[in-house]
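Protein in question kept in full:
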Amino acid sequence: MGFFPAENPQVAILVILDEPQRDKWGGVAAAPVFKNIGEQILNCVKTNIRETPVFEKEKPDKLQLVSAQQTLTPQNVPQDDESVMPNFMGLTIREAMKKAKAESIELKVSGNGWAVRQYPPAHTPLGNERLCNIVFELNN
């Protein structure tokens, strides 16, 4: 939970992460999410921090509470279906290799850190070729 500006709070943000995959401590995992949300608010809403919003089209009367869907995977694709590409996003190389081995999928790895892109994307139907290219990057 955080708010800004500190002297005269105008915006409050609550970030809830259920079992974060990368960082053990909630503040470390939630801080980048908080920052991104805050930057978007500063670009869209007039505050005493930024008098002229970057995107000021229709001015809302009030800010509305928004939240992510409870599940981020498609409802119609079973999580454990072996006929689709698993989701490697956010995993370390070691975790991705372990998961790929369990699913009999060959990995082509580039970079280091955590998985940020994969091709084919998660939940793509698998054909005869069981190969996934994954790009790993370090988060600063």
